[in-house]
Amino acid sequence: MEPLYRESRPIMPRNLTYLVAAVLLATLAFMVLSESLTGAGMPVWMIAASAVVFIIIIVALLVLRLDLVIYGDRVEITYAFRRITVRSEEIIDVRLGDLSDIRNYANWNLKGVKHRSYTRIGDECGIAMKVTGKRVVVVSTQDPESAARAVPGGREE
What we know:
By secondary structure, this protein is α+β, with helices and mostly antiparallel strands. Helix content is about 35%, strand content about 30%. It is built from four helices and eight strands; from the N terminus they run βααββββαβββα. It has helices at about 15-40, 45-65, 100-105, 145-150, and strands at about 5-10, 65-70, 75-80, 80-85, 90-100, 115-120, 125-130, 135-140. It has a four-stranded antiparallel beta sheet with strand order 1-2-3-4. Helix 1 packs antiparallel against helix 2 (about 45-65). The longest helix is centred in the N-terminal third of the chain and has 25 residues, at about 15-40. The radius of gyration is 21 Å and the shape is elongated.
């Protein structure tokens, strides 16, 4: 089945990922430099372990993605390594707009809600789906109007 809407973006914006990578690599360089110049007593295994951890962090930041795929009968969200499927029968209502507004479930009057938010760093707009079982799923997206129109079972407001 061909998706009605598809979006795939990194969880962290690339420029921020590159900045974090530069800071981690600079930290590693200063660790190596301070050890070689001053002999500060930092064990070599600690520098190697730090290098491995920093590389894992950098690769994870480059690989982690938020994928939103909307089909006629379901919504699939892949956030990092977690995959969530919401069937159309479960969707009661759909809201779109600013994430801070739709996160507080404005005008939904829900108490005891299980809230799940799948957002990218820096995103301000998205959709929220009210789902059976007192659950709300919030997803950030570049085009909330198109995503809300494509969501099966819900209605755009």
